[in-house]
């Protein structure tokens, strides 16, 4: 049950309607998802969240599909039903191998690509216990040719996923029909 209802386009302030439009257009969705329309009650929250999503998930050095896999794995670990479903749908939209999506949910250690596997494992560890990251964790990423700007992007991606999980769970977001399989 939703603790905070969505703020419909009709009820949203003009500056929030702009965020809705930017979000669904740039994310390639049919409309603004529940994730952003729930935050539409607060222009600051809606704009701030969209700026984070655009800056970290949509843009950057790493391919979006890689970041979506990380988002799925982290959301599954944190038991965020809404984010898990939304980012599985994004992976499908981006044509991610269905087996890799299942492995991100079930057993990251079996992802066949060692670079992707290590990136996802690092992101999950960062989301769970960032203080436990070791020099060996960073060396593992660097052994695949990742440089600091890409590693920082993985770290911020983990932070974005945790942030989104908190927002989705704390507001009690309802399933978004656009993300149904």
Describe the protein's architecture and organization.
This protein is an all-alpha fold and 181 residues long. Helices cover 65% and strands 0% of the residues. The chain is built from nine helices and no strands. It has helices at 14-27, 34-37, 43-58, 64-77, 81-93, 98-106, 114-128, 135-142, 148-171. The protein starts with 13 loop residues before the first helix and ends in a 10-residue tail after the last helix. The mean pLDDT is 96.
What does the overall shape look like?
A: globular
Give the % helix.
55-70%
Summed up, the domain count is 2
Look up the CATH topology of the largest domain: AhpD-like
The count of helical stretches stands at 9
Strand content: under 5%
Please give the alpha-carbon distance between the first and last residues. 21 Å
Radius of gyration computed on alpha carbons:
16 Å
- Write down the secondary-structure element order: HHHHHHHHH
Given this structure, which CATH class of the largest domain is correct? Mainly Alpha
Structural class: mainly alpha
What name goes with the CATH superfamily of the largest domain?
AhpD-like
CATH architecture of the largest domain: Up-down Bundle
Give the mean pLDDT.
Answer: 96
